[in-house]
Specification:
The structure is a homodimer. Chain A has 9 helices and 14 strands. Chain A has helices spanning 19-29, 36-39, 73-87, 107-123, 179-189, 205-214, 228-240, 255-264, 286-294; strands at residues 45-48, 53-61, 67-68, 71-72, 90-102, 127-136, 144-154, 170-173, 218-222, 243-247, 278-281, 303-309, 317-320, 326-328. In chain A, the strands form 3 sheets. A 7-stranded mixed sheet of chain A has the order 9-11-8-12-10-13-14. The interface between A and B is large, with 87 and 87 residues.
């Protein structure tokens, strides 16, 4: 790779499809994401999969700031899409990577992001096999937006679905909640203790595959990103037409996260996570699931936080508070936290 | 669908992952892209494919203006990704759709774009199976950017690759060149005869599948988008290490396109197309390929424009002009045409 000058910047021509795009791909993309499929630079990547049952997902990432404690937009773009494949019961295989870059964006920052993507892809055992780079004029986008799409192979014998959920099933969260969202917000707001907050941004496929390969009682999984635990549980409740009860003392929250949320006036239940999953599991398998989680570095704070119950009137999510009270956990409206991922 | 008020606009909360996102998906997305896979609204879409050999691709679309003669950003986002799958020798099956929308964007325009995506997906026999909606503050993006990724199933027995190309192979273009790029540019520049220019934006999989299923001599295909015919042929020449000769009189160009290019100072060979492919075919199969193209509405202006020749010194693309002269067709630098797709 040629050395980058601190003052090198992205030009519109980098996205023009001509010589400069060609050089950009050869200098910046290929050396970082070396694999036989990508190296062919075809219009599409050719994949030879283990199965005809595949999972397919996409997400765009517009997080602000681009770099934050515990991650950056690049790591997020890999882990977020890996996690969507993981919680669907698949083993992530390949990702696409599409960049929309503002003219004038510092090449040095782009290189940091690409390095981070490369590292995260390696850690998560996925290849970046297809890509696209578009440039827009200064002012037409803010720095950089990244889209990843992903393909995973369904794990044999695994078939998750909300329709499998029944009253009595236990709800497991794989670790502490609110870390990602509060890290982003506090870095944006520049609050005092921001350096102690750290995003949980991580790829979960290693843990979810282990869980699904070793326990048969997992019925459904979801990663509580935008909208947090509150949105994810409400979606599960609506889709399954069953109610959910969660116990406040069992929900793992770091004290610093709780303090930041209290200070900024947020409900941690509605805050985005980027390295956690919710699993709905049969009561018989709950302990085994918890044990597997706790033995994994990304699941060491896992907890059984509640259970699925019959719906009385309409399906609701209820929180049983520390003092034994009950409150409805509502679907967040969605106004609070733009550009969290 | 609820009736949209002319003054309804996209709010940041539409991308927040809460109630408003949920309603947006239920009102705007699901009714338009109805299919069983999408309806599950899982973190990933589950696909049961016909084969383990799949093609996977992605593109982001940042075209400006959003609406142009012959298409719009939505149609482009479907056709562009369909075409990348098509020229790789696959039958497109499923697309993902990811929107990055500027706060304040008119809901009415978004609905027009979503309708167009829905129509294009139906015409191209692909399902939109996965999606994502992100919103950014006013000024942080220009109106809307769209990413689509696509999955296609390799056609049985078809194996395209630059390494199969040999001297003597014929080069077919499926129709007139330059229509898309010059339409966009002339609408941006607001030139007089813009209304007579029309983008060729179209999905090519119907034609490419027909070709590949009926002729065995197709060796490689590419769609000459950004950088036009000049970039695509230069890429093929570099990758195959063979030279290419094309004959100026055989290259189909609409007179109005040539006139616009002359007026604006562009070389039509470098202008983007969005509904054309280049096929490199064995000399024996060239006539049959041409016939199949000409019998299809999207290939009626197809033409054999030249052939692959041995490299003398370095691989080059040469144009044999109308008067028998020769000039090197260079890889465009990439500076001319931002936001063409």
């Amino acid at each position: 790779m040629m050395k980058t000058n601190k003052r090198d910047r992205i030009l519109l021509a980098h996205g023009g499809g001509g010589q400069l795009t060609y050089e950009f791909i050869r200098r910046q993309i290929l050396p970082r994401f070396k694999n036989d499929t990508l190296a062919k630079l075809g219009d599409s990547a050719e994949l030879n999969l283990d199965s005809k049952s595949v999972c397919f997902t996409t997400d765009s990432y517009v997080v602000k700031p681009l770099f934050f404690n515990g991650g950056d937009i690049g790591k997020l773009a890999v882990c977020g899409t890996v996690n969507d494949l993981a919680v669907a019961g698949s083993r992530p295989v390949a990702l696409s990577l599409s960049l929309i870059i503002e003219e004038g964006f510092e090449l040095e920052l782009l290189e940091k992001i690409l390095d981070s993507i490369s590292r995260a892809a390696k850690e998560n055992n996925v290849d970046i096999v297809a890509g696209d780079t578009k440039t827009v004029e200064a002012g037409a986008a803010e720095k950089i937006f990244i889209n990843t799409a992903g393909v995973g192979v369904k794990l044999p014998g695994v078939d998750l679905g909300v329709e499998k959920i029944a009253a009595g099933d236990k709800i497991i969260i794989s670790g502490t909640i609110g870390d990602h969202g509060l890290t982003i917000i506090s870095q944006r707001e520049d609050i005092k203790f921001q350096s102690k907050l750290r995003s949980d941004c991580a790829g979960l496929a290693g843990l979810t595959c282990k869980l699904l390969e070793n326990v048969s009682g997992v019925k459904f999984m979801r990663d509580p990103t935008r909208g947090g635990l509150a949105a994810a549980l409400n979606e599960i409740s609506r889709a399954s037409e069953l109610s959910i009860e969660i116990n406040e003392p069992d929900i793992p929250i770091r004290p610093i996260v709780q303090a930041a949320a209290d200070m900024l006036g947020f409900d941690v239940l509605t805050i985005a996570n980027e390295g956690k999953f919710i699993a709905i599991v049969s009561p018989q398998s709950a302990k085994k699931c918890l044990k597997i989680c706790k033995n994994h570095p990304l699941g060491k704070d896992a907890s059984i936080i509640g259970e699925v119950v019959e719906t009385r009137d309409v399906p609701v999510v209820e929180l049983i508070t520390r003092i034994g009270g009950r409150r409805i956990v509502q679907m967040p409206y969605g106004r609070e936290l733009p550009r969290i991922c």
